[in-house]
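Researcher: Before we compare anything, I want clean individual predictions. No alignment, no superposition, just each chain on its own. First chain goes here; please echo the sequence and then give the structure tokens.
Model: Echoing the first chain and its structure:
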Amino acid sequence: MAKLYFYYAAMNAGKSTTLLQSAYNYEERGMRALLFTPRLDNRHGVGKITSRIGVQREAIIFDKEDDLLRQVAHEHLEKQVDCVLVDEAQFLSPTQVLQLTLICDSLNIPVLAYGLRTDFRGEPFEGSKYLLSWAEELIELKTICPTGKKATMNARLDEAGHRVIEGAQVSIGHHYTALSRRQFELHKVSPIHYEPPDLEAMGLTIKKPEAVLS
């Protein structure tokens, strides 16, 4: 039976590049791949999936209210669909993630979703939360922090490159950089409020994050 795959990573790990390569692999073998991208991601034009290495192609636009199962079913009736690929999958609604599971389970079409796990405060995106819960296959695409360590978090920056720790969860106009959790300093930006004790005053030696952002 077909499976739901969730490829997740921090920013700039090559998610869109991997998606486009997967689509090419299917189509090279004469198979049909349907590509979806959210309307709100208009960084390179609405309805376009663009990789950092310059590869771009058109995709079907979706909004949060769209029924992806119904849309794929109509496409499948017209011509066999062999795979569904979803870019920026963190922007899916919970209902749409449920629809993706039914594309796999009822239509026997594999679904490959690509997206971020968490936002600039370390909070899980709604779509990603359900993809992590329901996908059969979870695949991490790795990238690195400026310190050279594995990056898992996404820091939001303003135009001057300064850290932004407040604002709406979705903000397409900002810049982002991938950081390790240590460099991200999760306890300082998370909406989960916790004031840690002064461990140095307790006599412990604390390794502090390196200065990579102003």
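Researcher: Okay. Second chain, same rules.
Model: Second chain and its structure:
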Amino acid sequence: MDLRQLEALVGIADHGSFSAAAHALGTVQSNISGRIARLETELDTVLIDRATGLLTSDGALTVARSRRVLGELEALMEDVISTDSEVVGMVRIGMIGTTGRWLIPQTFDALAEHHPRIALRITEGTNSSLEAMLLNGQLDLAIFNQPSASDELSFTPLFDEELVLVVKVDHPLTQARRKKNGELSFTALRDIPLLLPLTGTTMRRQIDTAASEYGVTLIPSIEIDGVRTLTSLVIDGYGPGILPATAVAQQVRDQVAFIPLEGFLRREVGIVSRRFGLPSAPSRAVTALLESIIAEEENLPAGIHRVPVA
């Protein structure tokens, strides 16, 4: 089996066609076709349906394994060329958008100072999309709130983030009777349609659990697996929403009001990585850098709280 055959298959999976894979890999389509044909012969199966251009079930399985083989090879090369004083290589990292907005600039600054030869390839996504990319080897690590239970992923907490009710400044809820500590009871939301995360997502489960403790079943006017889209809808006046504290960009924060909810929990955000296999030297360096940014930053965004050290 030739590594170029695996690269060709992954290239087709990533770019959608033989010709696009050839372009991405710097070769011609006939070479890609030949490599796939030889790989299919060796494995004695069809990996790509030539009529549709889609991966077969065996093809999808082979792509998943191939990503890990190629990832280990890349990590080996980066480990060998990296030294204690200079780490060299590429790290593919995923981030939820609300965290990426404030953490990515700090990460770039820290890399420029401490590891200038590490390059980042950043993918923004939702919990579910980033988790899938991490599992299939498209990402080296990711930052999002706690993933679904999986024996293949490990989670290292970075910080807690408050979840608050966000409304337009002129919304009636801004005038609602509040407790002395400034919080709003969940019971005030009993009959109000809300913009909410998609049912089944980690954050939605947390919201529903908190509401149920007050005997309240929230009414969704819309459900979306994407915090940034939900935030845009709140800002545009489509209704109140329960969102992370950092969801609203600084330049439009004067358009909305942030109302803490009584007895509400924070979401825990951390670094997620594959449990099995040795991370590359660049991945280990970026992980340590992210942890130090949170631990040492004096002015974390409002609503962000360091995880207490055990």
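Researcher: What stands out in the second chain?
Model: Residues 161-267 form a domain with the D-Maltodextrin-Binding Protein; domain 2 fold (CATH 3.40.190.10). Additionally, Residues 154 and 275 are 5 Å apart (CA to CA).
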